[in-house]
Amino acid sequence: MANEKTLQEGINTIHIEGIVKDIRIEEKPINGQDAISGEIDIQVSPESIHTVNVFSFKMNQKKEVSGLFKTLVTIRDEYKTIDVHGIENADKVRIETSGKFDNGKVGKNEYVGQDGEWRSYPKLSAKFVNRIKSDEVFEPQAKFNLELAIAGSKAETRNGEETGRLILKGFIVNYQEQKDDAKKIFPFDFVVQNPTSVNYVQDTYEKGQTVKVYGDIVNTKIVTKRLVEVGFGDPQEEIDRKEVREYIIVGGTPPYDEDDKNAYDIVLIREALKKRDVAIEKKKEEKKNGNAGSSNNAGFGSNSHVVNPKEDPFAPDAHKKENPFNNGKPLDISDEDLPF
């Protein structure tokens, strides 16, 4: 008899290397416990800055001051930043997962907005941010490596025209022992832009499969200047600033075999999504009643967006009788078929 599967957290790591631009870390009570939390901005290039979230309670299970807490205090008090000390004096740092040690990961900051809608945007978090020694090789970068359950894919369009890039939509399975069902699994969008990779994903990846993908984390600002003719005098310069946040896949594995121990069970994924929906509705109700708990963290940033969590992403297409997992072909999925 085969062992019964359980839903387990998948591979989810990041590698960020750059110069500390700014640190915003403070100590304050959280849920009645002393804690330290905040953000570290890491500059990979002048145009690419990544914000990493950090957190630790002060006391560990042994009722001793946590080593992680001490580390974050050191970062706050001793690390030098570009904003304060200048780029020549700022610390070079690295976030990486080494062996079985779990450090940085891709996540989501999700919350109920003032309008009562569920909002969601990507975030990066880490336990440690290590200084790079002067004799170490310094290679600025921001990369991800993770497993996901595929929800579908669609051609990217801009102004009604296809860009040639592909949007791959999936679910990331998070730590399952936490109490908040809304955080145990969450949707995430990726971009595939290399034409060969686009063809491979379209021809090979199907809804419901498990894959591992890796690529580049993009967080940059694009400044566009243009001259606008006016009634008289010199043309007026107009400046447009656009922030781009993308997770660009540069490679991935073939879909895992169904009997692979790391392949997600679609039944368990569905169950986790249903529990997530219930948790989200509860948070909305709490917000509506003015009783939002501490788990409903207010987010920020222009890239948050409203999502509809209720639809089943693995359900057979409405216009087809058969199960989409059985036809052996990639699915052409519209936004209406997906929960995000």
From TrEMBL:
It comes from the Bacteria. Residues 290-304 have a biased composition (Low complexity). Residues 308-323 have a biased composition (Basic and acidic residues). Residues 283-340 are annotated as: Disordered. This is Single-stranded DNA-binding protein. It comes from Paenibacillus donghaensis. The lineage of its organism: Bacteria, Bacillati, Bacillota, Bacilli, Bacillales.
